[in-house]
Amino acid sequence: MHRFIFTAILLLFFARISYAQEWTNAEIRKANTAGSANYLTEEEKGVILYMNLIRLDGQKFYYTFLDDYINKYNANVRQYRNYNELKITRTNTYYTSLLKHLQGIKNLPLFYPDDKLSALSKGHAVDLNRNNLESHESSNGDKFSKRLSKYFPNKSMSENIDFGYSKSLDIVCHLLLDCGVPSLGHRFNIIDQKYKLNTVGVSIQPHPSYNYCTVIDFVAQPIFYTSNQ
């Protein structure tokens, strides 16, 4: 019995090590669909890159980039008195449920950037900043679907908004964990398969209450591209 337990632990250890390997240059190149999008900042391009790495190999992302994010996050919040409430533990239900959702994510179709969609994302992020809002609705009351449908009619669409981060890895990991969001809507947009979301717009802007806000818009539409592999 003891020998069986030892063997199981050993197998688990080696499985963890295999997923902790570095990502290959080929994987990074494949995920970097926004590399030549000159209308995006480097961090905005990074948001698309990291979302695509998740779609290429969700479990590998969980054990590499997500682990790095959590370690850095926990180190940053250690300064606060309520550290025990703020820290992300390995027993956190959002952390444990994420592994279940990412285990089957492998070689999904990638996200590709779009200049018009990114302009719409920027327009909403600027509106949130100008009016100190935290909503999918514009200051004039328009829902995100109305904003996007003007240029992308009759398409499946969705929107993620993140507050507090300016760095792409932090933004993507924060949305992927989706702590405090029971519906896990941000997470499911990133790993979407149901609605065939494949086109994205991204904008990172300042925000008076949270320092930064990021708007990511998703649309499903036929796209034609040249592989950058």
UniProtKB/TrEMBL annotation:
Keywords for the protein's UniProt record, in alphabetical order: Signal
Keyword Aminoacyl-tRNA synthetase: no
InterPro entries recorded: CAP_dom (IPR014044), CAP_sf (IPR035940)
Keyword set includes Cytoplasm: no
Signal sequence annotation: 1-20
Residue ranges occupied by any SCP domain in the UniProt entry: 106-215
Protein's name in the database: CAP domain-containing protein
Domain of life of the native organism: Bacteria
Pfam families on file: CAP (PF00188)
Taxonomy of the source species: Bacteria, Pseudomonadati, Bacteroidota, Sphingobacteriia, Sphingobacteriales
